[in-house]
Specification:
- There is one protein chain.
- It contains 1 helix and 5 strands.
- The strands form 2 sheets. The protein has a 3-stranded antiparallel beta sheet with strand order 3-4-5. It has a two-stranded antiparallel ribbon with strand order 1-2.
- By secondary structure, the protein is α+β, with helices and mostly antiparallel strands.
- The chain has a domain of 47 residues.
- A hairpin with a 2-residue loop joins strand 1 and strand 2.
């Protein structure tokens, strides 16, 4: 299991994809609706710009590295 901690996360919605329920999260700091949504499932971190749009898939190690680089 992978745990990704996001500060001030709000649950947006749940969708069912290939029998897996995804819970998408968006930071509560997002006021402009121009923020990404993040879902964690199994061994993949999924990121999307908007519902129904393309989804990026990250291995957990790559997601942690990206988050660490953004914090710097």
């Amino acid at each position: 299991m992978v745990t990704v901690t996001l500060r001030s996360v709000t649950v947006l919605c749940e969708i069912v994809l290939m029998g897996v329920t995804l819970v998408w999260h968006r930071s509560s700091h997002c006021e402009s609706n121009q923020c990404v949504d993040v879902a964690v499932t199994g061994d993949v971190v999924l990121v999307r710009g908007n519902p129904g749009g393309p989804v990026l898939r990250f291995p957990p190690e790559a997601w942690r590295a990206l988050c660490a680089a953004l914090k710097r």
